[in-house]
């Protein structure tokens, strides 16, 4: 029997007659050793009680978004992110519509919007609701966003109708959870991955600097994905306000020159991924003291070009087997990325549109285009975590044939 010891499941129970199956699901999860926290929607309380679920789970059952006690003990953000997987069973048409459209008007929908973990839905509704065009659109959107589904099954429903819409059985949902939480293959075990992230800061004087809006979120997500695939992961990061991903060797830097020297010191590596938004220019001569206002107008700053980290590593004697650059563009994204691929000498460019209104800088979602010598592959918009997972899986696949040839 596969154990879930050390794993945590957040179970969100929607308001449908299938909610009664949640008791058996909780029992199965507890039998496997999982910790189970539960959110009940207001409608779900009409079918099952917090008391019965608390008794089965051994945990407090959460129902209200605005509870000062709950916010002190377990805020809704932490509740949504402390689990290893979020399961919605039953996932009603209403909950699915809220998820697909980013609505958050109760604890369940807020937790779903705030989570950064994988989500599993077990839909349950009348066959006509399941086949309605709106539900079909919402299902397509949620799958596009990376949500996993189990069911619905065909069968007789409480309303007396027969067809798709019956919630998957608890053992089916358990199997889907086990599949989502099973240890991942680690194709990058024994391999070294170096990743740059965040902005650089180029000093003007002791209190001012040139920088940009990069949050570092995409680079940090890629570092986490590399660790999950077993890589020795070095993260060379400019100044950001993000927690260091577990298992990552952190190398903090400030300037482009610092970043280049640190990257060179980490060579050789199997894969190098340059997500950092490096300042193209720096002040030729940093002022030793704070520049003061004067009646003569603003000071003249003479700029000089920063080192090209991507091109330098791509052409170095210790070149990694795979070198990946990022291209943050505001227009003609794929065209400029293709030019960059040739000029920098790297193997792949991940291009994205960071123009005003795109929400990429500082946001949690991204739309990227993979540019190689063979063409452009357009990826749909997805979370930065999902971009990171898919990218690292692709790079691992690219590395394997090279290893086979080397043998």
UniProtKB/TrEMBL annotation:
Residues 7-181 form the Flavoprotein domain. Residues 193-407 are annotated as: Phosphopantothenate--cysteine ligase. CTP binds at residues 280, 290, 307-310, 326, 340, 344. The keyword Flavoprotein applies. The active site is at 159 (proton donor). In the N-terminal section; belongs to the HFCD (homo-oligomeric flavin containing Cys decarboxylase) superfamily. PANTHER family: HOMO-OLIGOMERIC FLAVIN CONTAINING CYS DECARBOXYLASE FAMILY, PHOSPHOPANTOTHENOYLCYSTEINE DECARBOXYLASE. This is Coenzyme A biosynthesis bifunctional protein CoaBC. The lineage of its organism: Bacteria, Pseudomonadati, Pseudomonadota, Alphaproteobacteria, Hyphomicrobiales. The gene is coaBC.
